[in-house]
Structure formats: structure tokens, C-alpha cells
Design goal:
With 610 residues, this protein is an all-alpha fold. The chain contains 21 helices and no strands. It has helices at residues 14-17, 27-35, 41-68, 70-115, 117-132, 134-152, 156-180, 185-189, 194-219, 225-238, 243-269, 288-329, 346-372, 380-395, 402-436, 446-449, 482-498, 507-531, 537-566, 571-581, 594-607. The chain starts with 13 loop residues before the first helix and ends with a helix.
């Protein structure tokens, strides 16, 4: 039996047959349909039954599940509904975001970047710079406090080192900041850097305080060369001023200290500075000893004051000259100098200072000596020795002023001697005249006051000064004439005080002062003698003896005592020099000259027969 074999065009797979039905919509169904033709016939025959059984089983299971889990199915239904609603709303919102919000945000961001972007970028750059320089800034913020602490504790080298370090760090910080902002040239040029300016201002303020402290150091009287040299060196390092200006400041401050110290000494002494009050007002009836004690008491106070004043001036002047020389002139210790401006000559400024400094220092001493030195007589000898030592000490530093001291001392000696003569001789003589001549309506007779005993008047031949009479031995014949003897004693007291200090160049002044007083006394006595002419012969003889004692004993002996006894000079040589240069005019002033008075006495004595 033959069978017909179908061709490939006649046979079709089950998948193709059911391709248009719902069964082909599931991949599982397609796999099942592909396997179905390969099964045996028995399996194919049992397949419907199997499917029916499984369908009933699944239906039962689903029914049971539905009855047992219906709340879950209800919840699942509601949840699915809400989820679908949310997904729909989300889809709408997402479409709105994409189509509307995002383009608007993009436009807003672009506008923000264009308008406020540079400011924000600059702020971020500044914040970045601050973060990068945080450690340096933290150290720099402590520098002003450290500098101020060092200044207050006298640690000047550390303060200057900190200031130098801070200045370098701030300069580096500014350079780095400008370099970081170099992309924005306008911002880099106008960068405020307020922190740098504030720190620099605080450092400058601390250094200014340090400068004031160093300048005040120059004003302190107790400071010596090491402290002053250190202060000047720090001022040089700070470049506070030029070298010549610093030298002027140094000299002015030290001169101010010395002037204040000397003013304090003068103020503490409590001595009036009226140099014209050399005349004392003594109580009536005071003796010559009492007057000398009063003069010596004030002279001793003035001498103690001058001794302290001269010592202080010598120490201050020597220190000032030494300090100035060491600090500003000695090249090995001068340190770093600050050159003056180009239009100033440093050598000329230094020369001016060196020329004016000695005269300025002497202006602190010489006016005081002119005011007080005359009033310290007769205590001039120790003061002259002290002044000589003072001049010698300053001569070692190029400030020899001995030539200025000699006229002052000589004038003081002459003035002091003249004061002693006035307070002693003239006071005694004027007292005698007031008691016996000028103070009475009718002058007393010579026998009552000119001689000790009227009946024992010395012979005229004894009233001459022998050449063998020593210049230090007073003539005893004058004891017969008490007024002349008192005058002689007053002169001797004045000469004894003069011998403590008698400069050679004061000889003429001393002789002139003594002769002036002698001339005044001789003139008064001569006038009294002329007024008594024509009286009693005994009284005339007493006047003749007194006149002879005056002209031939008292005057020659005093001249010899001064020239030979005090100054150890030759009286004959001096007399020859005076005679060769003397002026014998008899004018109004000439009437008071001793030589004229002596000639008048000799003329009167000759007219009376002696």
C-alpha cells in the first residue's frame, strides 16, 4: 500500500496555523505548540484530560484564594489605581519641568552669571586666598602685640626684628595676592588689602612709641654713655632722622638735662642772683669783726654752691663732649650712619656743631661765675683751684677755657678786696668822722680824737718810714694816732684776706682800690686841717703830726705792703713805671688821686713850717 508523502508546501506548523489567534501571543504557548507534534499519540490523547483536570484544580485554588485573600486583592486594586494616578501626575509634572521650568532656570542662571557672577567669583577668590594664607595671617596678626610687648619691656632688637619680618611678610603677601588676581587686572589694581594696611599701621604705631621712648632716654640725666650709645644706634637702625639731625637732637637733649640739673642746684641753694648787691647793710655800731663774719657767712654759702655747681657742670660737660665724640665722631663706634639729603653737607653740619658746642656749654658756666664769683671772696682760692682742674679736665677733650677764667678771677679778687676796704676802712673812717667832725655843728678839736695822748705827740723826725722797715711789719708810730691806727688795722685785715689768692695781674687793681680809699681819707683829713687853720698852736701841731704820719708813714707802708708783701714785686720798679706814665692833672677826678692828695698834704705841711 502506497501512501502519499506531503510536500513542504502542503505541511504547516501549528505555530503558523495559530499565528493569528490569541494563542500565539505568548511565548510559552508558542513553545508548547512547537513541542506538541513531537509527542506520542497517547500523550496527545491524554492531553485534553490533563488540561481539564489542571484547569479545575487551578479554578478551585483561585476560588479558595479569592475567598481567603480578598482584602489583599482589594488593597492591591486601590494601590494600583493610586499608583496609576500618581504616575499620570508625575508624567504631567515631568513634562512641565522639562518643557517650562528647566528653560526658565537656565535663563535665570545665565542672567545671574552675567550680572552677579564677577562679584561672587571675586569673593570666592578672596576666600581662597585667605584659606591659602591662613597660617601666615595668623602669625602676622600676633606681630603688633609682640612688638608692643617687646617695646614696653625694652627688648628693642627683638622689636625691630619682628617689624622687619612683618614688613617682608606683608610685602610677600601683597605680591602673592596680586599675582593670584592677575587674571582680573582691574581687581588686582584696586585691591584694598585693608588687613595689610591695618597691620602696617599698628606696627608703625608701636615703632613710633619705641622712637619716643628712645628719645626720652636721651633726656634722662642719669643715663651714661652705654645707654645713650645704644639708644642712638637703635634710632639709626629705625632711620628716624638724618645723622646731623640726630646729633643736634642728642646735643640739645643732653644740654637740656645739664641745664635742668644746674638750675636745680641754683634753686636749692636759695641764693639771690643779684650780682650788683655786693654792698652789705650792717647795723649801726657794728664792729669790723662782725661785718667780716657776716660777709664771710654769705661768701661761704656762695662758695659751697659754686663748688657743687662747678663740679656738676664739669662732669656734665665732660660727659657730653665725650659722648658726642664717641657716638658721632669716632668711626669705630659710630655704627650705621644715615646720610643727609643731597643738598646738605654732613661735614659742614658736624663742623658747625663742634664749633658751637663749647661756647654753648660755657654759656651755662660763665654767666653764673660772673654773678656769684665776686660774692664768694675771700673763698676764691679753692674755687680757683677747682676751676683750674675743671679747665684742665676739659682741655683733654679739646675744650680749654683757662684764658676765660683768669679775667673773672682777677676781677673777683679786685672787687672782693675793694668791698673789704669799703666795709672796713671807709666804714671805720666814716664812723670816726661822723662822731667828731661831720656829725657835729662844730668839729671836735684834733687833740680829742686824732692822738692818743695830746701831751706826747711823736716828733716830726720820727714820722718817716725807714727803708729797713719790713713790708709785713706795721709801723708802731701810728699807734699814737688812733684813727690812722684803726685804718691801718682795717687795711691789714683786708690784705691778710687777699693773700689767700692774689693773682699777679690784679696788682694794679688792688693798688688802685687801696689808694682810692686812702685818697678819700686823706682828702677828708686835709679838708679838716684846712678848716682848723688859725687855731690853737697845739692843735695845729697835732694836725701837722697826723698829716705827716699819713703822708710819710701810712701811705708808703701800705703801698710797700701791697706790692712787696702780698705780690712780692719790686716797689721801686713799680713806682718808676707809675711815675713814667702817671697823669698829674688836677681836675675834678684828679683831686681824689692819692698822689695829688699827698702833694696837697706836703704843700700844706710846708706852708705850716714843716
Amino acid at each position: 500500500m502506497t501512501t502519499a508523502v506531503p510536500t513542504s508546501t502542503e505541511l504547516s506548523s501549528l505555530a503558523d496555523i495559530f499565528s493569528g489567534s490569541l494563542l500565539a501571543s505568548s511565548p510559552t504557548n508558542l513553545d508548547f505548540l512547537a513541542e506538541l507534534p513531537t509527542n506520542a499519540l497517547s500523550d496527545l490523547l491524554s492531553t485534553p484530560t490533563t488540561f481539564t483536570t489542571q484547569s479545575h484544580t487551578l479554578t478551585s485554588s483561585l476560588t479558595a484564594l479569592t475567598h481567603t485573600s480578598y482584602p489583599t486583592f482589594l488593597s492591591l486594586h486601590h494601590t494600583s489605581t493610586a499608583l496609576l494616578t500618581s504616575l499620570s501626575s508625575f508624567d504631567t509634572s515631568l513634562n512641565s519641568l522639562i518643557n517650562t521650568a528647566l528653560p526658565a532656570l537656565d535663563d535665570a542662571a545665565r542672567v545671574f552669571r552675567e550680572k552677579t557672577g564677577p562679584e561672587v567669583i571675586e569673593g570666592r577668590q578672596k576666600a581662597r586666598i585667605v584659606l591659602e594664607q591662613h597660617d601666615k595671617l595668623r602669625d602676622l596678626l600676633d606681630v603688633p602685640v609682640l612688638i608692643d610687648t617687646c617695646v614696653r619691656n625694652g627688648l628693642y632688637p627683638e622689636a625691630l626684628s619682628l617689624a622687619t619680618h612683618a614688613s617682608s611678610a606683608l610685602s610677600s603677601l601683597v605680591a602673592q595676592t596680586r599675582k593670584s588676581l592677575s587674571d582680573d587686572e582691574g581687581a588686582a589694581q584696586g585691591l584694598p588689602l585693608q588687613l595689610v594696611d591695618s597691620l602696617q599701621a599698628e606696627i608703625t604705631s608701636s615703632l613710633h612709641s619705641m622712637r619716643l621712648i628712645l628719645l626720652n632716654t636721651l633726656y634722662e640725666p642719669s643715663r651714661k654713655l652705654p645707654a645713650l650709645w645704644k639708644a642712638v644706634q637703635f634710632l639709626r637702625r629705625m632711620k628716624a632722622m638724618h645723622e646731623d639731625e640726630l646729633a643736634l637732637v642728642f646735643i640739645s637733649t643732653r644740654l637740656g638735662c645739664l641745664r635742668d640739673t644746674l638750675d636745680g642746684i641754683e634753686r636749692d641753694a636759695g641764693i639771690p642772683s643779684d650780682s650788683g648787691s655786693l654792698e652789705f647793710k650792717f647795723p649801726a655800731g657794728s664792729t669790723i669783726e662782725e661785718r667780716e663774719r657776716e660777709i664771710d657767712r654769705e661768701a661761704d654759702d656762695i662758695a659751697r654752691f659754686l663748688k657743687k655747681y662747678i663740679d656738676t657742670w664739669r662732669e656734665g660737660a665732660y660727659d657730653l663732649v665725650t659722648q658726642y665724640t664717641t657716638i658721632f665722631l669716632d668711626r669705630s663706634h659710630a655704627g650705621a650712619r644715615i646720610a643727609p639729603p643731597a643738598d646738605q653737607d654732613a661735614s659742614a653740619s658736624s663742623y658747625t656743631i663742634r664749633q658751637t658746642l663749647p661756647s654753648t656749654l660755657l654759656e651755662l658756666l660763665l654767666p653764673t661765675l660772673r654773678s656769684y664769683l665776686e660774692r664768694s671772696y675771700p673763698h676764691l682760692a679753692p674755687l680757683a683751684t677747682q676751676l683750674a682742674y675743671c679747665s684742665s679736665a676739659l682741655a683733654r677733650v679739646g675744650m680749654d677755657f683757662r684764658a676765660l677764667l683768669s679775667p673773672l678771677i682777677s676781677r673777683s679778687v679786685i672787687s672782693g678786696f675793694a668791698r673789704d676796704v669799703r666795709s672796713g676802712v671807709e666804714h671805720e673812717w666814716s664812723g670816726v668822722l661822723a662822731k667828731h667832725v661831720t656829725g657835729k655843728p662844730k668839729p671836735s678839736a684834733p687833740s680829742t680824737w686824732l692822738v692818743a695822748t695830746p701831751n706826747s705827740v711823736p716828733a716830726f723826725k720820727t714820722l718817716t718810714l725807714s727803708s729797713s722797715n719790713a713790708s709785713h711789719s706795721p709801723p708802731q708810730v701810728l699807734t699814737a694816732f688812733p684813727p690812722l691806727a684803726k685804718m691801718l688795722n682795717a687795711y691789714i685785715r683786708a690784705l691778710n684776706r687777699l693773700r689767700m689768692l692774689a693773682p699777679v695781674d690784679t696788682l694794679s687793681g688792688i693798688v688802685d682800690g687801696a689808694e682810692e680809699c686812702l685818697a678819700n681819707a686823706g682828702h677828708d683829713l686835709l679838708q679838716y686841717a684846712k678848716d682848723r687853720r688859725g687855731g690853737d698852736v697845739k692843735e695845729i701841731q697835732i694836725l701837722q703830726a697826723a698829716g705827716a704820719a699819713y703822708t710819710r708813714v701810712l701811705v708808703p707802708w701800705l703801698q710797700r705792703a701791697i706790692v712787696e708783701g702780698v705780690f712780692s714785686a719790686s716797689f721801686k720798679d713799680r713806682q718808676s713805671a707809675v711815675d713814667g706814665t702817671g697823669d698829674h692833672d688836677a681836675g675834678e677826678e684828679g683831686e681824689r688821686e692819692l698822689s695829688f692828695i699827698v702833694r696837697e698834704w706836703e704843700s700844706w705841711l710846708g706852708s705850716t713850717g714843716i
